[in-house]
Design brief:
This protein is α+β, with helices and mostly antiparallel strands. The chain has 2 domains: 71 residues, no CATH class; 74 residues, Jelly Rolls. The chain contains 3 helices and 10 strands; from the N terminus they run βαβααββββββββ. The strands form 3 sheets. A 4-stranded antiparallel sheet has the order 3-10-5-8. The radius of gyration is 17 Å and the shape is globular.
């Protein structure tokens, strides 16, 4: 599993102070005061909605920075999937080019396995995955699953 470093950025000094207190024992988390637009990082994560509408807040700042076409681009990268209970989807061969995906569970559960490493996701959970090996998605037999997949361009 690739190590992930997280940088939390906010212009509000009270939020920065709270994050620093909460994450003081997590060396993989860096907390900075300032603008997200000024950070040299590989990806931004913002608390947007499932439709990718960038009407205000941090999303509004990003839309203003990149222009209105960014909303259309973001929306084209979001897929909302529904799988019936008991569904199994297997990819026994890795993709020709690895994929970077964010999976956000909306309802039900999903057992995600990549290269033999299994993770169970339930409603409210999120997972970042680099898809570079054999992959398996399994919905337990109790209930269907609904989730978002956000594909990073690459």
């Amino acid at each position: 599993m690739q190590n992930v470093k997280v940088t939390l950025v906010d212009v509000n000094p009270k939020m920065v102070a709270a994050w620093r207190e909460v994450f003081e024992n997590n060396p993989e988390v860096t907390v900075l005061q300032g603008s997200m637009l000024d950070q040299k990082v590989s990806a931004w994560v913002s608390p947007t909605n499932a439709k990718g509408e960038m009407a205000g807040g941090l999303d509004g700042v990003i839309k203003k920075h990149f222009g209105p076409k960014i909303q259309t681009k973001v929306q084209s990268e979001i897929a909302r999937l529904k799988l019936p209970a008991g569904t199994v989807v297997e990819y026994s061969l890795p993709p020709a080019h690895w994929l970077r995906q964010h999976i956000v569970m909306l309802s039900g559960a999903l057992v995600f396995t990549i290269g033999g490493e299994e993770t169970r996701l339930e409603a409210g959970d999120a997972l970042f995955a680099i898809i570079d090996r054999e992959t398996r998605f399994q919905v337990p037999p109790e209930a269907p699953a609904e989730y978002l997949v956000i594909q990073e361009p690459g």
